[in-house]
Amino acid sequence: MKVLAAMSGGVDSAVAAARAAEAGHDVTGIHLALSRNPKSYRTGARGCCTIEDSNDARRAADVIGIPFYVWDLSDRFHEDVVEDFLSEYAGGRTPNPCLRCNEKIKFAAVLERGLALGFDAVVTGHYAQLRTGADGLIEMHRAVDAGKDQSYVLGVLTQDQLAHSLFPLGDTAKPEIRAEAERRGLQVADKPDSHDICFISDGDTGGWLGEKLGESAPNTSGPIVDSESGEVLGEHEGSWRFTVGQRKGLRIGTPAADGKPRFVLDIEPVSGTVTVGPREALAVTGLTCIRPLWCGTAPDAPLECTVQLRAHGEEHRAVVVPSTDGFDVTLRDAASGIAPGQACVIYDGTRVVGSGTIAATER
């Protein structure tokens, strides 16, 4: 096949491109320039999309022996990922920008352009596995390396996108990938993995939101209210500074009656009210999800399954009931600190069934 290898400049995407070439595919490497003002160097493991990353990707392509190009998708990334991130926080929700980037950029914008240029598929360094099911549909399964599994952030992919995707690393543990990179002579073999949010390179999400939203946010101040007594405990400078489950940074002067810490339970962006309470009040047993995306055929009856509610979160036993515009989830075991805006990814064993965006929670 004629494939595009999305090369971030890291070890995973470099080895994925090398494996695709070794398998006999006609591979062209591309680096996605997603930042309008890329820095020259990354800071440790924070961020990505720097000029350094682009150069690392180019050197890896040279070692593999494949053509290499840089695609500037910074405007679309800003509109579909950064602006979405800002609007979600301003609306009191907690988005996952990596999931949105996969949905809108890597497997929409890139795949659309690639197919138009005559390519058959996109290969990435994501840790997930693809199989053909008994019904002929493409199934996505968890990676062998549970600690690196990225099926959660790929849960937004459609059947058509899965049919044009390759994930060569899903059957291998990460230490083996680094060892393979070294054997192949790839200089990125020991390069630290990137983490946190790529467009917030210093890791200070609150500070970045304050700089970007500032006075334009719906509420620059509001009350912090105790869930049990209704007492106003203090004032904040923007509801977008908080997320459900947050403990640090509340700056509440009045201690709880039992002396235990309080956590953010709810964010109401219209009034600017942030409600706090005890840890046990974070437990939720039900979810309402919107924007459903199914990896195959949507279920037409209640589904006994498991769900994952965070990128690195545990699985929860659940029953999913499809609705006309989404699905409802009853959790067999309560989950803690779940925020609207996060993704709910549905699994049948290791297979991804589909996903949705959490719109509301039920305690």
Automatic annotation (TrEMBL):
Keywords: ATP-binding, Cytoplasm, Disulfide bond, Nucleotide-binding, RNA-binding, Transferase, tRNA processing, tRNA-binding. SUPFAM superfamilies: Adenine nucleotide alpha hydrolases-like. Its EC number is 2.8.1.13. Coiled coil: none annotated. Residues 148-150 are annotated as: Interaction with tRNA. Its main location: cytoplasm. PANTHER family: MITOCHONDRIAL TRNA-SPECIFIC 2-THIOURIDYLASE 1, TRNA 5-METHYLAMINOMETHYL-2-THIOURIDYLATE -METHYLTRANSFERASE. Catalyzes the 2-thiolation of uridine at the wobble position (U34) of tRNA, leading to the formation of s(2)U34. This is tRNA-specific 2-thiouridylase MnmA. It comes from Nocardioides marmorisolisilvae. The lineage of its organism: Bacteria, Bacillati, Actinomycetota, Actinomycetes, Propionibacteriales.
